[in-house]
Amino acid sequence: MLTSLVVAPMAGGPTTAELVRAAARAGATGFLAAGYKMPEAVEAELRAVAGHAHGLNIFVPSPAPVDPAPLEGYRQLLRAEADRYQVELPPLRLTDDDHYAAKIELAVTYRVPLVSFTFGVPDPAVVRALRDAGTAVLITVTSADEARAALAAGPRALIAQAGSAGGHASTTSPDGYRGTSTALEVLAAVRAVADVPVVAAGGTASAADVHALLGAGAAAVQCGTAFLLADEAGTRPAQRAVMLSGEPGQTVVTRAFTGQPARGLRNRFTDAYSAAAPIGYPAIHHLTAPIRAAAAARGDASALNLWAGTGFAATRAAPAADIVGMLGQAA
Ligand SMILES: Cc1cc2nc3c(=O)[nH]c(=O)nc-3n(C[C@H](O)[C@H](O)[C@H](O)COP(=O)(O)O)c2cc1C
Predict the structure, then answer these.
(1) DSSP state of 178
(2) Are 13 and 36 in contact (CB under 8 A)?
(3) Pocket residues for ligand 1 (CB within 6 Å)?
(4) Among residues 82, 190, 256, 281, which is most buried (max CB within 10 A)?
């Protein structure tokens, strides 16, 4: 079903159809990232990867917040940033299903070989519809409890995402989430309760990391950060510059940009707002969007979400095929 190496879906720019095609040509499996995109854009990408091994990643909609007051408080706090970047803060937008139904329909119509979900568990009916279309469904989890809940929906496999992973945590318990687990730990915890194959993800930076996870029983290893500087990736220039500077610092887990815990490079924004940021995806994602867009336009990395995992220091700029080759080298 899967090659042993998976190039992770990375929404927000890094994943391109070109990256997925390059991964497939090099013997890995790349996932398109449907997150934040309009269905038309997803459809264009599905057409662009036809004939290549590929998957599609879809965000499961988050439940509406019970109490919007902390979000309003955070909005007030962000006024200083809005002034700094000369943007208007939008009114709070509490729900957004990211065109979930349309994206599922596209996956069914295009009989996408693999569909992975993050941020929650899809309805069993959705899993059945995809299975009937010949699609293997994978659900991302961060703990044994989340694995049990996901298994009830009938997926073909689980993705065990560690706290070391770059980008958003798929956790459904963002409150207590600290992001301290390693890929080996989460793989073991998930395998202990799962009767389906488990893909390991988080913090992998070398062939030795990949081999250790495969040796510990992972059906495949999903790597994201290692591909952020791939020639074919659409990573923003400001993030590339930070990662190539030789001084990218360290990663932190923060809700400051989107309201969902995510690991990224520490910067001025994470220092200033991580402590105050409430739980609230996608409300905070929409709230900070104009600030992030203005910062990106100025090439100012200090207010950008620079998603990256703990292995970021080993990331090298190279064609994706070379990175696949490096990660897949025999131990
Ligand atoms: C920039 C970036 C964007 C990401 N976007 C997504 C996404 O859209 N969907 C998803 O399921 N995972 C996403 N992830 C998480 C990856 O699927 C995976 O768990 C992670 O990259 C593995 O850890 P690593 O980055 O240390 O290799 C993203 C990761 C990064 C670094």
Answers:
(1) -
(2) no
(3) 8-12, 14, 33, 35, 57, 116, 118, 140, 161, 164-167, 201-204, 222-226, 307-309, 311
(4) 190
Q: Whose CA is nearest to atom 29 of ligand 1?
A: 167
Please, what is the end-to-end C-alpha distance for the chain in angstroms? 23
pLDDT digits 0-9 by tens, 274-310: 999 999 999 999 999 999 999 999 999 999 999 999 9
Give the domain range for residue 52. Answer: 1-61+97-234+312-331
Q: What is the CA 122 to chain-centroid distance, rounded?
A: 17
What residue ranges in the chain does DSSP mark as E strands?
A: 5-7, 29-33, 54-59, 114-118, 136-141, 157-161, 167-168, 198-201, 220-223, 251-254, 262-265
Atom of ligand 1 nearest to the CA of 308: 31
Q: How many domains does one find in the chain?
A: 2
Q: Give the model confidence (pLDDT) of 78-121 as tens digits.
A: 999 999 999 999 999 999 999 999 999 999 999 999 999 999 99
